[in-house]
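Hi R.,

Here are the chain sequences for the assembly we discussed:
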Amino acid sequence: MSLISATGLGVSYGGRRVLFDINFQIDRGEIVTVVGPNGSGKTTFLRALLGVVPPSRGGVHRAKGLRVGYVPQNLHIDPGLPLPVARFLSLPHRHSPAAMAEVLARVGVPDVAGQHMTTLSGGQFQRVLLARALLAAPDILMLDEPTAGLDQPGVASFYRLIDDVRRDMGCAVLSISHDLHVVMSASDRVICINGHVCCEGAPHVVRAAPEYRALFGLGTGGALALYQHSHDHEHDHDHCHESGNDHAHEKEHADHAG
Amino acid sequence: MLDDFLMRALLAGLAVALATGPLGCFVVWRRMAYFGDATAHAAILGVALALGFQISIFMGTMVVALMMAMTVSVLAGRGWAMDTTLGVLAHSALAFGLVAVSFLPTVRVDLTAYLFGDILAVSRFDLAVIFAGSAVVLGLLCWRWSALLTATLNEDLAHASGIHPGRERLVLTLALAVVVAVALKIVGALLIAALLIIPAAAARNFARGPESMAMIAVVLGAVSVWGGLELSLPQDTPSGPSIVVVAAVLFLLSTVAGSLLVQFGRR
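And here is the predicted structure of the full complex:
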C-alpha cells in the first residue's frame, strides 16, 4: 500500500485554481522528485499532502500512523526566541543527547549541538533541519527545495547525503526542486507539475518529454550548457556509486560546502 | 497572614507573574504584542457589561476578552492587515467600554481601578480567583508547551509532526483571555500587555533557551510586582503603573547588562 496518495486533488486559494486533477502516490522506499517552474503550485502540492492545505477537490490519503520527516524550504526563527540546536532537535518530542549526537554526526555537522540556530551557516542549517526530520524515524522524508541558498557543491553533497540516508533508513523521499539536474539522477520518478501533472516518469523519460521541454525550455544559452554538462557528470556517478573515486569526489564537495 | 492587605497584594501579584512570564514569551515569539493589547483593552467593555448585567467582573472581562481575541483571529484570517484590524478593534473596544460605563445607572464607577489596577484592594475572594486563573494558564501552557513551541516556530513543521497549529493558537487565545481577566485587578486594562511583554523581553537578554527565558520572565515579573508595591506604598503612586515602571527599569538594566556580556565575549 502506498504511503501517501492523492486522487483528483485540486486546491484553490480565493477562487484561484492552484492545483487541479492531480493523481499521485508514493510507495515505501521510493524517491520521487516534483519539479515545476516558479508559481507552478509545487509547494502547495506538498502542503496539501502534509494536510496543511485542505483540498478543494478530490482527496489525500495518508497511511495510518505515517511518520513524516519534513524539511521546510526555509525556517525563519524570530530573534526573540533563543533556540539552541539541541532544543530544536527535541521539538516536539524529547530525544536523548546520544541520539542527537548520532544524528548530527550522520548528517555531517557533529559539533553544532550547543550552538544557537541563528549562528549556523546555510549549509549547516539545512543539515540540522534534516537531522530533526530524521530523529522522528520517518516513513517518508518530505523536502521543500531543501537546497535553496546552497552553492552547487553544497547542493550536490546534500542530495548525496539524502540518498545515503535513504539507503540506511529505507524511508521514502519526496522532494521538490527547481534545480532539476542535480536531483534527477537520484530519483526513481520525476513528476513535472504546472497546476496539473504535465508529465511523469523516470528522469530520462521526463527530460525528453516535450511537455517538460516546453516548460523549462531546454537549449536556451550558455548557462544551460553548463548545467547539462554537470548533469551528465552526475549521471556517470550514478552508475558507479560504490567506486572509491566517487567517495573522494564527495569529500571534495563536502569540503567546498563547509 | 491573608488578613494583611499588603500580603494579599503581593501574593496576587506573584500569582499573576507566574502566568504572564511564560505567556508573555509566546506573545514576544509570535509577535502578538498588539494582539495582547487589543484583548486587554476589550476588558473595559467587559467591565461595563459585567456591571450592567450584575455578573462577576472576572467572568465579564474574560468572556469579552475571549470574544475579542476570536474576532481578531477570524478577521486576520480574511486577509485584513493584522495591525489595521487590531488598531480598529482595540481602540473601538476601549471607547465602547468607556462610553458604556458612563451609561450605567448605578453609583458612579471609579474607572481608574480598572484602567490602572488596584492591587492593594485585592480581597480574599479575588486572591482565590487570581490563583485559580493563574494555575489554569500555567497548567495549560506546561501541558501544551512542546506543541505550542513547535507551532510557534513553523506551522508546517508542526503539522508534519501531527500538531494542529490552529488548536495551539486557540490554547494561547484562551490563556490570554484568562490572564487579562486575572491581571485586570493587578495592573489594569491599559498595562496588562506591558506585564506580558516587558519581563519576557528583558529575559531574552540572558536566556539560553525557550524554557530558561520563560523562567527568567517569571522571576523578573515577580520582582517587578514586589518593587512596584514597595514604590507605590510610601509614594502613594498608582500600583499598576508603578509595577510597569519597575519592569521597564529591569528591562533597561538587563539590556545594558546583556550587551556588556556580549562585549566581553562571555556568551
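Chain B has one domain: 5-191. Residues 22 and 214 of chain B are 5 Å apart (CA to CA).

Let me know if anything looks off.

Best,
T.
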